[in-house]
Amino acid sequence: MSTNDPGPAGGRLRDFPAVFLSYDEPWADAHWRDLRALLPHAVRVHGVKGLDACHKAAADAVAGDWVVTVDADTRLGPALADAPVPRALLTGDFRLDWLSRNAVNGLWSGNGCVKLWPKALLREMRTHEAAEGGAPSLDHDIGGIRPGRSAQVTMPERDAMTEPAQTAFLAFRAGLRETVFLRRMAEEVAARRGLPGWTAETSVLRLISVWCSIGRHAPNGLWLLYGARLGLALPGLRPGWDPAGVNDYDRIADLWAGQVMPRYLRGGRADPGWNWERLETDLRSIGAGLGIPLAEFDSASSRLAARLEQLSPAITPSRGDSAGFRLQRGSRSAEGDAAARGLLEIAAALDHPAAFDNLGRLHAAGRMAGADPARAAWLFRAAAAMGNPQAAGHLAELPAGVAAAAPPARLAQDLPVIRAGPGGAGALRRALRACAGPLCLLLDRGVQPGPAFATHVPDPALAAGGRVLGYMGLCAVTGLPRPEGIRLAAPEVLAEAPGRPAEAVLPVVLGLLPAPASAMEALRGGLRAGTPPLLAGLGRDVRFGGHWVLGALLALAGGPPDAAGMRRLAALQGAGLETRVAAAARAAAGRTGQEVPVWTAEESRALKAMIPAVPARPHWTAAAGGLAGLGAYGAERARVMAAAALAIWGAVSPAACR
Question: By percentage, how much of the chain surpasses pLDDT 90?
């Protein structure tokens, strides 16, 4: 295949010209040899100063309309070289990103990711040192190159590793640059949303917490942590500090040579020996003053935290909607419309209001298979209920008869809500029979509505025909979503059988599950929580958390004891409980063949702040399995759930997780 023409069906990543970008990395030659073995046609651009300039040099280094860029600290696996590149995304307006796994903290992110650029778009870019008017610029800002048209699209394949910490200085530089960039992003989002400060922007704060917490297990990991924490502290240490300074590698080198090395160097510069005690003391002191959630993981805990897949969802609702909208607007083919629909459906599955509106527009225009004007009307109504300002106007443009025939769209908080209480099944049946309306939400005993009650619009089509649909609740002990707590159905269906389980549980967190009121309650809750091994030991920062953890570990180790044994376990306190928890963790590890950490209270608290409340991969696949049996429409929604699982959590090569 020509590198200038992706062909009628697109191609593979290896079919496009590739450029290896290196600057001063001591390991660059070794990584370059590895890349050439995988992509023999790759060329190298070395030593170009400036993050805008080096990418422009990459565009000039190869022929054709496209260029793949690979950073010097990133290694590709063979699965990524063979990753498909759909032709529908090769419009010239999109940069395609394949995430890379950070070898220190385990995050899959755009830091060090592999990128496929349209060269014309790259040449129009003005970022970093080339930003117009000297504006602060710490990222490529793809959406700003061609406003309303250009966007990043995160691809699902995951088989790349970025290794930023192979020397002390470069580990320090990587940590410093990343948290300065993330803090700047958090400040911009907080200002746009009217939040009280950058730490209130929790979606970015959690990434900052990861960069500042996980790394002690890795070679030079302490230096990455030190750089990350210092990057956050610099505005307070240096009034007038310009974040754009991190674009100048010489300035960072001067900071290292002039202030960092003299403070921590024990030997001479030719043969450095570090004062690790002073570094550790300063690291903790800086961390204590940041006012953000972080943990001082020891080496063993840090290594296990870096393996948590839950830290790395790949797509945000707004980015998925943005890319889908731009693709929809520029599409001139059924193939492009289908790709836009896929991106928008994933964003809608994550409850993004504009995605509902944009999907409605595709339906209304007849630009996709199975286009349905009545479905368009419901989508517009749902988007309007969620606060989208354009949806009402789009609804008004539909024929009156079509709009009138569509079912209403109501937020969860506007539906009849029935709460199970102490009165038992009889009282619950009476409340359900007295409920007016075609659908209601039934909250299990003690469950409270979560924030999504004010933003989620239940789809009545999924609960049609007497079906029961479930939603997830957030666990009060672990902070993880669990597939229980709330059901949607016709009141008469639940009145007949109040305990009827849901046919499918959507990966939408609608409820807040109650905290255990006793040690026995916690023990039983942990036993049925179904927590994976790496997270079974999470929760000791809350009341009765130790008993919950014990129950979760016993479930992995083979199950609960008899009633008398349960009473003895519930009575354990202090050192006795700790001893039993440790024994259960060893038994769980032996039975599962996996490591089963028991996180401290501090570690649990920090991990909860780092793990987003996005349902994990198994919940999306379980939803797809449940929906597949709910008729033709259920099967269609099952396809969306499966696509969302792939988009959010990726197709991970096993080799990339070693």
Answer: 78
DSSP string over 255-291: HIIIIIHHHHB-S-TTS--B-HHHHHHHHHHHHHHH-
Is residue 391 within 8 Å of 360, Cβ to Cβ? yes
Place of tokens 């498909």: 84
Q: pLDDT (tens digit, 9 = 90+) per residue, 558-578?
A: 988 999 999 999 999 999 999
Alpha carbon distances (Å) from 463 to 347, 468, 495, 508, 531 = 21, 6, 15, 15, 28
Which pTM does this prediction carry? 0.92
CATH number of 11-162, picked from 3.90.550.10, 1.10.10.10, 3.90.1150.10, 3.30.950.30: 3.90.550.10
Torsional sign, CA 348, 354, 356, 359: negative
Q: What is the per-residue DSSP string for 181-205?
A: HHHHHHHHHHHHHT-SSGGG-HHHH
Partners of residue 178 on adjacent β-strands: none
137/134 Cα distance (integer angstroms):
8
CB neighbour burial string for 33-65, b if at least 16 within 10 angstroms, e if fewer: eebeebbeebebbbebebbbebbbbbbebbeeb
In whole angstroms, give the CA distance from residue 475 to residue 136: 41
Model pLDDT for residues 143-161, shown as the tens digit of each residue: 888 998 898 999 999 999 9
Give 293-344 as a DSSP string: ------HHHHHHHTT-GGG-----HHHHHHHHHHHHHH--SHHHHHHHHHHH
Instruction: Report residue 109: phi and psi, to 5°.
Output: -160, 180
DSSP state of 128: G
For β-strands 74-76 and 160-162, DSSP reports them as: antiparallel
Element (H, E) at 80: helix 78-81
C-beta neighbour count of 420 within 10 angstroms: 18
Could you read off the pLDDT of 272-291 as tens digits, one per residue?
A: 689 999 999 999 999 999 99
What is the length of the chain? 658
Report domain extents, the chain.
11-162, 168-306, 317-405, 410-514, 519-610
